[in-house]
Description:
Blueprint: H1 11-18, H2 24-40, H3 47-55, H4 61-73, H5 75-82
Amino acid sequence: MKITVEVDCTPLEARAFFGLPDVQPMQSAMMDKMQDKMMENIDKFSPESIIQSWFTFDPKMAEKFGDMFVNMTGLGAMRAKDK
């Protein structure tokens, strides 16, 4: 014998039926708090500030990054042939 039961309910109704707590207010509060923290620190993750933090420790680092990008694009091989 096989019995099939189909229940049509929302997730909120299913949580209430099983006695689980409604975590939606807590999720909203946490998301608001996370968004506030992200907005406070958004300036630290701008491209200009990231590049500036990379180049503050060594003045020759800019030259090294430039060489790295030239080699990555394949222009380094063309420059070596020209020499």
